[in-house]
Amino acid sequence: MSRRTKNMQEVDEVPKKRRRTTRISTSESEDENDESLESSNKENESDNEELYYAGNRELICGRIRKMHLKNFMCHGNLVMEFNPKINLLVGNNGSGKSAIITALAIGLGADARTTNRGKSTKGLIKNDESSCSIEIHLTNTGIDAYDPEVYGETIIVYRKINASGGGEYRLKSESGATISTKKNELKRILLHMNIQPNNPIVILNQDNARAFLKDSDGKQLFKLFMQATQLQTVLDKLNICYNIYLHAKTQLERHNRGLDIQKSQLEKHQAELEEMKGLEVLKQKLKRFKCDRAWFDIGEQEKVKRIKNQELAKIHEETQKLLGLISNKDNLDKQVNDALAQFTGQIQHKQESLGDLQGEINSIRGKIEEFNSKIIEQRAIVQRVEDHKRRLNQEIQTIEVSLKDVCDMESVRQLRQKNATSLAKLIEREDELKSLIENASRDLDMLRQTNLKHEEKQESIAQNRSIIQQKIRNLENQCARYNNSRSDPLAAYDPNMSNFVRRIEQEVKRGGFSKPPRGPIGQFISVPDKKWRMAIESICGGLLQAFIVNTDKDRIKLDGIRTREFSSMYQFPIITQKFVETVYDINEYRTPNVSRPNDSIEAPNVMDVIQVNDPVVMNCLIDQLGIENILVCANDRTASYLTKNQQSVPRNLKKIICVAPFSEYYPAPSYRSYSLREQPCRYIQAKVERQLKSAIANEQQNLKPLEQEIKLVRQQLQSTQTALRDRTNELQQYEKSLRETRVKIDELKNYEYPKEDDGEFLRQELEQLKANVAQADSTRGEESEKLIEIEKNYKQFQVTLDILKKKRQKIENEITAIQRQSDEERSRLYDIASKVNEAKAKSKSLLEDTKKARLEYEAISNKIDKMIEEAEKLGQRREISLDRHSLTRKIVEIDHKLRETATPTMSIPEMEELVQLKKSQYENNCEIRDSFESTLKLLCESRIQRYTYLKHLKQYFAYRVRSKFASVLKVRNMNGTINFDYKNRELELSIAPRGDKEKTNTKSLSGGERSYSTIAFLIALWSCCDSPFYFLDEYDVFTDQVNRFVMTKLLIHEALSKNDQFAFLTPQDMSSIEANEDLTIHRFADPIRGNMGTSANDSEY
């Protein structure tokens, strides 16, 4: 359905704008065609930009911006740019109009048969040409754009077709870079943009258009309706779902029959188990009677036997001590780990206390700074009082002088001149001090910022240093652990790998696997030449840790062992592969070694670089990695030479791994290269201890510049703080001088010179000034006491700060001590592991001694049994409940019964395990059956709901098409409707011509009325289809000039009312239609006749 719908307007209301046409022509000569295309591009470049970017018109993604055809049908080299709204393609038959629609469908992935142009795409190649190409530019703008960060505003779809039958797709970005070569990517783009190249009303080719306009068959119209609305596609999908449902139902019935068989087998095995348990009772009786007979007499060799028993007891006691040490390892480890956890908690607690203490220190520092400011302020107050007193004394001296000179007016005039000169100098000094203060303030701000940066840098470097120190400790711990497990080559994979392998070997001996599993794969691979080891480990990757099993049953068995007993090894993969005891014969497909000494080119095959002593492992590497098609080389020059040019690529090459620089190269035509991360070998002949020591040395080397840098930063910080203090004192001196200068300026400005009658007044003022001096002395005493009190508090806070700093240093020392204890506990943990390893080795030796002593003990016991047998022949007996004859008779009877009974093929535990397995399988299959039945029920209900929804959707589309069809007919004063016969899948158009009230079918209409009604039906179908563009070929083939004009106007009006792109193809004269901003007329040149096979316009396409 359309997303954009507008009310229908009269056809004649379409505004006429300035004419815009393009003329399309093709040429044999590639050079001539390129020149004509270049000139055409220059002429239409501004017009095309105006078409695509004029105003605020919204660009909908999926529109056709440009098409470029090479050697396609009749076109040798054609470039055609489209209007985003309406395009009218005009040209005589044979000029290549229909080839545009064919190229559009083929380029967007449609089948050649849907275009009615042949059964194969290679038939669309121009005569005498080996290939053709189609390039379609799709707009990719707006909110629905497809991956715009990758493709940009234009997606270029390129398809090449070869005469041999092959071809390729390329999806390019706006810049022309190839993004993908897969057709699935094109399908995703078409689905995202809702482009339907196989929809007959989206791309209506010439043959379908003629059949549609001419044929009024109801079944064909109904089929067109179903295809246009995509209802047929939905129905086909639902039918496929129904077939899947039927198949699943059949599978369920087969599964139920299999459950019945499983149940009968389970009952049979349970009966066999009960019978075996009865036989086991007889075997126990036989064993008891034989035991009684064996211990019937005890010989004279008891002393020797007792000595051997004592030796065994002594060995056993010593063994138990060692085993106790081994078994107590977990407790010791737990104690050490608990201690480590306790130390960690203490460190965290201390660090929290340290953080709180740092907060207090910062608070005290704030108060110290506050009191420091108060001291400076109070000192300034005392200084001001002193300055005031000094000024008063100066005034007193001045007045006393004035009293002497009150009658000397000449001295007054000289004093005025002197004071004026002093005032000018003081004002000049004031300006100078202001400039100095401003510069000093700016310098202080810069110094504070510099000081802050140095502090942040110091903190950052300290953190990095702490991180590197922690890395060094971790590496040292790893090195210690490796030294404890140096004798175990599998420890590089996992600490429990050896135990896991031994557990697999035990299960193999018991017959738990069809064939012994192989793993880890890395232990089967060796690389004699060490320069290739890193490359081989990079190629194999995680496969080196994998295990290989022969069957799914073996995989389940191995996974069960791993899950139950070695849960920490869940990350090691298990590969199921049928074991073949000989290496595959891949000589036909293998990439050969490359050896050209003259050109310094050497690239061996991976299979020649590695040594694998197990054919199963080698076959796994071939299957999983394709190593037969991978080469390795020493430098990038060799890799680039062998992959960049397709002519130089060795046969079947998959990729090349380059050692220096470490990278991988993929061959042309998809040439590309990627850098790889260099990592030391960990599994293939890796020297772990050397790597760990090298890593420790590297980290220590990295630590040295940090130490130097933090030392330098501290020096810079100290220098900055010194400069900050000096500059602060300098600023205070400048401010003090400025205050004094301003006071002097005020004094000179306010200086009152004596008059002849001022003697008495000066005497009174002198008395007042003396009183003020006395008051200033009193005020200075009070402010001095305040200053002393503030300085006292300042010193107390300084003392408190020193105490807190000492506490902080104490806590830091305690943290260091705890860390040292933690390191000692870790060393103790490694010592415990070393002792346990020694105890294991010694216990193994003692177990061998125990075995030897027990053999001697058993030899003596056998000798005693022989003596007992001889003694019984002589009549010597021990007191037992039965005599030897009775014991022997019972043994014979039981043995006879056991011989008459068939020997079971397996033991009771094995049979119990089999019964349990069968029972588990039966229960699991029952659960699967129940889940399957519920799923089938849900699938059936969902299918019925979808069929019902499809029915409603079909009715809605029918109503919408019928309504749109009637509204289009009313434009020409015609009445009509559409009758749907869903049962017979037929559709009939009932139309009443102008002036006629009775409706009839289209066969009774004139040619123009029939064509108009068919176009109305097409427009009605458009209302139910949402596509970015619509292409219609020869819509006016069966109409006269008048009806052609009316239909063209109608289609143009409909196109203007929708926010989609339209292209109409016609061989008729369209001079009555004028081009405008929304309409471009493309005129094709007349075809050149008489030059078959070489002309671009031989026949109509």
UniProtKB/TrEMBL annotation:
Acidic residues bias spans: 28-37
Protein name: CSON007859 protein
Gene Ontology BP, a term: chromosome organization
Chief site of localization: nucleus
Coiled coil (residue ranges): 252-279, 382-485, 689-877
Keyword Ion transport: no
UniProt domain RecF/RecN/SMC N-terminal: residue ranges: 777-1075
Cross-referenced PANTHER family: STRUCTURAL MAINTENANCE OF CHROMOSOMES 5,6 SMC5, SMC6 (PTHR19306), STRUCTURAL MAINTENANCE OF CHROMOSOMES PROTEIN 6 (PTHR19306:SF6)
Record InterPro entries: P-loop_NTPase, Rad50/SbcC_AAA, RecF/RecN/SMC_N, SMC_hinge, SMC_hinge_sf
Start and end residues of each SMC hinge domain: 518-640
GO cellular component terms, semicolon-separated: nucleus; site of double-strand break; Smc5-Smc6 complex
Family in the record: Belongs to the SMC family. SMC6 subfamily.
Organism from which the protein derives: Culicoides sonorensis (Biting midge)
SUPFAM superfamilies membership: P-loop containing nucleoside triphosphate hydrolases, Smc hinge domain
Region feature Disordered, mapped onto this chain: 1-49
Location in or out of the cell: Chromosome; Nucleus
GO molecular function per UniProt: ATP binding; ATP hydrolysis activity; damaged DNA binding; single-stranded DNA binding
Keywords assigned by UniProt, alphabetized: ATP-binding, Chromosome, Coiled coil, DNA damage, DNA recombination, DNA repair, Nucleotide-binding, Nucleus
Domain Rad50/SbcC-type AAA: 66-296
